[in-house]
Amino acid sequence: MTQLTTLAKPPAVRRSPRRPQRAVALNLIAVAAGLAVWTLLGVLGVQALPTPLEVAAKAGELIADGTLLGDALASLRRVLLGFLLGTLLAVPVGFLMGWYATARGLLEPYIQFFRTIPPLAIIPLAIVLLGIGEVPKVFVIFLAAFLSSVVATFQGVVDVDRTLINAARVLGASDRTIFLKVVVPASTPFILVGMRVGLGSAWGTLVAAELIAAQEGLGFRMQQAQLYYDLSTIFVGLIAIGVLGLLMDRLLLLAERHLTDWQERR
């Protein structure tokens, strides 16, 4: 059994400790440069763009009265629920499609068909069939996350090196053992990348999903601010979505590095 584990997980490659520090430094430089350009455009009055200080002041107001926290929690709940449901379904479906040719033949036409349809185009149908409560909002987000993750999982399974599978068979491994000890570890990087893409799709779909008779949420607040040309509130919503999405993506990235520490990285 140890031989199979060795086949699926090559020795870890040590990375220089200076690389994370350099990456953080470059990130900080990029943020500082972006804020400088934003401030300059705001001071010049380009398209009545608010400055970072004005946006920060508006964020302080929304935090003080509890609006921002309530909206962030509502949006986070919808994204997490849709993303988790989409991922939990996508991973087994992707494994089925990649491991069994019959399942692939039955499911792939539907997956590829719905991939070409933007989740936003499903909103009218979701409203008609599911009403205007929380269910259609979560369903649209779920669909966006599911379609991204299922394709990545499927691709991870079919791209497993056949040499590893053949070597495991030579060692006398059963199909179940090959699947658990070779296919699953080898396809884990694909699954995690698919989850990161699915998370981005979930947040990208949020604003449109909250068009469905929402009473709270970051997307709802931005749409309300649009009616009154309240650019500061719109920027607060955009930044809040970006920060929450970035934090969740970093958590997935940490999980990816932990689960695939055997994979060579640049």
Please characterize this protein's 3D structure:
With 266 residues, the protein is an all-alpha fold. The chain has one domain (64-259): MetI-like (MetI-like fold, Orthogonal Bundle), CATH 1.10.3720. Helices cover 79% and strands 0% of the residues. It has helices spanning 2-8, 18-44, 52-64, 67-99, 101-115, 123-130, 134-158, 162-170, 175-209, 218-227, 231-259.
Write a compact overview of the structure shown.
Helix content is 79%, strand content 0%. The protein is built from eleven helices and no strands.
Keywords:
MetI-like; single chain; transmembrane helix; globular; cell membrane; NitT/TauT family transport system permease protein; MetI-like fold; 266 residues; mainly alpha; transmembrane
Helix and strand arrangement:
Elements: H1 2-8, H2 18-44, H3 52-64, H4 67-99, H5 101-115, H6 123-130, H7 134-158, H8 162-170, H9 175-209, H10 218-227, H11 231-259
Helix pairs in contact: 1-9, 3-11, 4-5, 4-7, 4-9, 4-10, 6-7, 7-9, 8-9, 9-10, 9-11, 10-11
Between the first and last Cα atoms, what is the distance in angstroms? 30 Å
Estimate percent helicity: over 70%
CATH homologous superfamily, by name? Answer: MetI-like
Q: What's the rounded overall pLDDT mean?
A: 84
Strand content: under 5%
Q: What order do the helices and strands follow?
A: HHHHHHHHHHH
Q: Quick one: overall form?
A: globular
Number of helices: 11
Q: How would you sum up the major sheet?
A: none
Assembly state: single chain
**Would you identify the regions where 5 or more consecutive residues have pLDDT less than 50?**
none
The number of domains is: 1
What is the fold-level CATH name, i.e. the topology?
A: MetI-like fold
Query: What is the strand tally?
Result: 0
CATH class: Mainly Alpha
GO cellular component, one term: plasma membrane
Protein name: NitT/TauT family transport system permease protein
Main location: membrane
Family: Belongs to the binding-protein-dependent transport system permease family.
